[in-house]
Specification:
The protein has 16 helices and 20 strands. It is an alpha/beta fold. Helix 3 packs across helix 4. The structure holds zinc ion.
Length: about 475
């Protein structure tokens, strides 16, 4: 195990319980860091320029947030504190069909693209411009960037309520190819949402063609997560087979009381597909979802919280039912008046959340909404919640497996070289935490409460979070395919 390098380390983290991200049992060791990389793991008598006593603490690979909407947050000062404070050192952006680039959007910004985009932020005509801006300004964490299918549609089509023509598919294909050449990691879709719902399977396969040559990723917020979830899974697998690429089922969930318990069926279907083709899956550790507020989404939830509203911002953080009562109208009518707006929907079954989270191949992604006035607590709490609530308190799985689902497994599924493990040669993306106290504090009432037990976070070898505060070091970089 010990590889004692002769050089003087920049830092030796001494005596931590190393949970290395592979899922293997933790072990006590020193970890030496030099030039932003892990140089050695073992008994390291060398002092290094700095020696940090980490006895009683766990040292894990920095977490990889596989599902984010941090496209704009990466370029917004302070906006990544939510992630750094949880031990996240890499985020995957551009999910659910939504990316800031390419930003030559025709006409008004179609919801849900407004979850991340404002007119002044659509300033990166090419995907390469966006990636260059991150590298020029320096992000708080590393970024793996997907291209959003709705964004491609909004760049190409004058009218979104129909299937794209062959010429429009060609134009989207060229934009995607351009983005992949610049280092984008893949394509995401959100056919669940009205403006992308009109895209046929054939449209997605046509647009996604450049993924094949790049061996890039196809991620999807599927067309249906309720009654027709099995059809949606089959469509996802079909797209992956036709393009010859890995598919990622984003934030897998079963929406609505009628579908509670059906993760037994869906996971069986997913496991069977995994035998035949590359399939990945992620989820967030909560039984409430969050996205744009739409009247047609309201009935499926047992309750709805407003997370932001452009027309009536004073209602952010309030229950839709209370607002509707004051307005003297139905919940759906109130939603209509609050739009454009965002909401949190309580509509999942805790047993499904646990079953999906515990499924061996499930990675953890926050799906946090960084620009919401009153965000879902997953933005600030996801990763410590998996460690504290689900691993330590509920014993859903071991600490080692919890870390694996948030680091090593994710790097492996994404094909991210040199990340996600504590091993010599890997990037020094690290988190040190107290296993006895680590946990989420963010709640639906107080969604920005700092998590407990996260002591220190390093991004590419530099301290990016310490003593309860993010450090302004901009140590992250774009990870290009
Ligand atoms: Zn989504």
């Amino acid at each position: 195990m010990a590889t004692i390098a002769p050089q003087e380390f920049d830092l030796v983290i001494a005596g931590a319980t190393v949970v290395d991200g592979s899922g293997a049992p933790g072990f006590v060791a020193d970890v030496g860091i030099a030039d932003g990389r892990i140089a050695a793991v073992g008994a390291l008598p060398t002092a290094g320029r700095e020696r940090l006593n980490a006895a009683g603490r766990v040292l894990a690979p920095g977490f990889i947030d596989v599902h984010t909407h941090d496209d704009r947050a990466l370029l917004t000062p302070g906006a990544m504190d939510a992630k750094l404070s949880q031990g996240v050192t890499t985020v995957v952006t551009g999910n659910c069909g939504l990316s800031l680039a390419p930003g030559a959007v025709r006409g008004a910004i179609p919801p849900p693209l407004d979850l991340i985009a404002t007119p002044e932020w659509l300033r990166f005509p090419r995907f390469a411009d966006y990636l260059q801006a991150i590298d020029a300004e320096g992000a708080a964490v590393n970024a793996v960037c997907l291209v959003g299918h709705l964004s491609l549609r909004a760049n190409t089509m004058d009218q979104l309520e129909r299937t794209a023509t062959p010429a429009e598919c060609d134009a989207m294909q060229r934009l995607l190819a351009d983005a992949l050449d610049a280092g984008a990691w893949g394509l995401s879709t959100g056919t669940f949402y009205p403006p992308a719902r009109h895209a046929s399977t054939d449209e997605i396969v046509a647009v996604g063609e450049p993924l094949r040559a790049h061996g890039a990723l196809y991620a999807t917020h599927m067309r249906n997560e309720a009654e027709k979830v099995l059809d949606a899974l089959d469509e996802t697998f079909e797209i992956g087979r036709r393009l010859g690429v890995r598919v990622l089922i984003s934030h897998h969930k079963l929406a609505g009381v009628a579908n509670h318990g059906r993760s037994v069926e869906t996971l069986k279907r997913i496991a069977a597909a995994m035998e035949k083709q590359p399939v990945s899956i992620d989820c967030y550790p909560y039984n409430a979802s969050s996205t744009v507020l739409r009247p047609e989404f309201v009935a499926r939830a047992s309750s709805v919280l407003v997370s932001w509203s452009t027309t009536m911002p004073q209602h952010a953080g309030r229950a839709l039912a209370d607002i509707a009562r004051e307005m003297g109208c139905s919940d759906e009518q109130a939603a209509e008046r609050l739009m454009p707006a965002g909401a949190i929907y309580f509509m999942m079954d805790e047993a499904d959340v646990r079953r999906i989270l515990a499924f061996p191949k499930t990675m953890v992604g926050s799906d946090g909404m960084p620009h919401d006035e009153h965000p879902h607590p997953r933005l600030w709490g996801t990763f410590p919640r998996v460690l504290g609530h689900y691993a330590r308190e509920e014993k859903l799985f071991s600490l080692e497996l919890a870390v694996h689902k948030m680091s090593g497994l994710t790097a492996q599924e994404l094909g991210l070289p040199g990340r996600g493990l504590i091993a010599p040669g890997h990037a020094a993306d690290l988190v040190m935490f107290d296993p006895a106290t680590v946990g989420d504090r963010a709640t639906f009432a107080d969604p920005r409460a700092l998590s407990a037990g996260i002591d220190r976070v390093w991004v590419n070898g530099r301290t990016a979070f310490a003593d309860g505060a993010a450090q302004d070091v901009h140590a992250g970089r774009v990870l290009r395919r």
